[in-house]
């Protein structure tokens, strides 16, 4: 399941835009929203969502995996703050099946609130205020009033927030302005942080992989730095979920690493309907969608809106994301005596990972 999820994360990143663009998204947030929709789906609609999230998994495996993940993310932790929350907004006169409500409550810890979607501005404001509160004000205006209408029956909303201090902080006194090589003809100035320490590290013929632990040691940021200065597109094409997790698992702390990493702050907003259709979820968006495990009425997904934010500096990382799903009628390097250089002065991919699960994935360009 973790490998299927890593695969989904990389596909989302690839479909979000070319390798020459900035991006930040939370595959975890998108997956939880889709898993809640999966719980209400049947027939071809269910098969397509299931295959996209975790091909080959049984109904029970899929729901239990995401349920466990959701509950695990919501447990208090020392050294960092990780919060995940789900809410189901229902049209006042719309009554979903009790079995679906039970899954949302018991498996996803979801709250349920009745609203009047015909009051589009008022309801958008209500949803956005909840998201803003859950993401420490990092995600604002997730949905706009024009995404809602009197025909909207429900909105499944997931929010996730992470704030963690590095286990080994970068010394702010060493941060200096340096050139970041965007393309062959284009450099930009960045604030480059620096630290030398024993960090998890591996490499293969194409990419260097560095693990930067947050306090408490069960959440890491992994940075995938192409060996070719402008080789990011090639690296993104060649890595699938299994390979990504393999590289992460191969990381060893045998080597002292000289790390240079730019401070960065990214924000992205996507309407994921087209992306998800390209990944294989098509039926759910059509008039013959089958959500008969959710309601006796005909329902389809009108939109999936996702917004994410991340900021990384000398102290650590703050990241947040929210997804609203709207419905309506490698090789291990041998230990080296001299420190390994890990100089992130050209485009790279990063992932914030907990126990093999990708919470956030993005691209710095």
UniProtKB/TrEMBL annotation:
One of its GO terms (molecular function) is serine-type endopeptidase inhibitor activity. It comes from the Eukaryota. Pfam families: Serpin. Transmembrane segments: none annotated. GO terms for cellular component: extracellular space. Residues 8-365 form the Serpin domain. Belongs to the serpin family. PANTHER family: GH10112P-RELATED (PTHR11461:SF211), SERINE PROTEASE INHIBITOR, SERPIN (PTHR11461). This is Putative serpin-like protein. It comes from Toxocara canis (Canine roundworm).
């Amino acid at each position: 399941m973790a490998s299927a999820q890593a695969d989904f994360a990389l596909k989302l990143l690839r479909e979000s835009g070319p390798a020459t663009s900035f991006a930040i998204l939370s595959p975890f947030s998108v997956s939880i929203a889709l898993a809640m929709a999966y719980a209400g789906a049947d027939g071809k609609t269910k098969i397509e969502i299931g295959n996209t999230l975790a091909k080959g998994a049984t109904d029970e495996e899929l729901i239990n995996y995401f349920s466990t993940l959701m509950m695990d993310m919501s447990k208090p932790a020392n050294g960092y703050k990780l919060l995940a929350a789900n809410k189901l907004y229902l049209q006042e006169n719309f009554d979903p099946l009790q079995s679906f409500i039970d899954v949302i409550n018991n498996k996803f810890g979801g709250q349920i609130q009745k609203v009047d979607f015909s009051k589009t501005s008022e309801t958008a404001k209500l949803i956005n205020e909840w998201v803003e509160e859950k993401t420490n004000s990092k995600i604002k205006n997730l949905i706009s009033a024009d995404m809602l209408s009197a025909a909207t029956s429900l909105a499944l909303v997931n929010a996730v927030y992470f704030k963690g201090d590095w286990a080994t902080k970068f010394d702010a006194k060493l941060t200096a302005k340096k050139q970041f090589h965007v393309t062959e003809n284009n450099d930009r100035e960045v604030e480059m942080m620096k630290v030398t320490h024993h960090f998890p590290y591996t490499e293969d013929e194409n990419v260097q992989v560095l693990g930067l632990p947050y306090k408490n040691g069960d959440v890491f940021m992994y940075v995938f730095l192409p060996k070719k200065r402008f080789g990011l597109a090639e690296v993104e094409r060649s890595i699938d979920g299994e390979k990504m997790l393999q590289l992460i698992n191969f990381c060893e702390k045998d080597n002292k690493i000289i790390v240079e990493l730019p401070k960065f702050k990214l924000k992205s907003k996507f309407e994921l309907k087209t992306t998800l259709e390209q990944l294989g979820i098509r039926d759910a968006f059509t008039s013959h969608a089958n959500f008969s495990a959710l309601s006796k009425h005909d329902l389809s997904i009108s939109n999936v809106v996702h917004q994410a934010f991340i900021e990384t500096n000398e102290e650590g990382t703050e990241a947040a994301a929210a997804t609203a799903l709207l419905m309506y009628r490698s090789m291990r390097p041998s230990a080296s005596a001299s420190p390994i250089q890990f100089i992130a002065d050209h485009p790279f991919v990063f992932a914030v990972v907990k126990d093999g699960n990708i919470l956030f994935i993005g691209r710095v360009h």
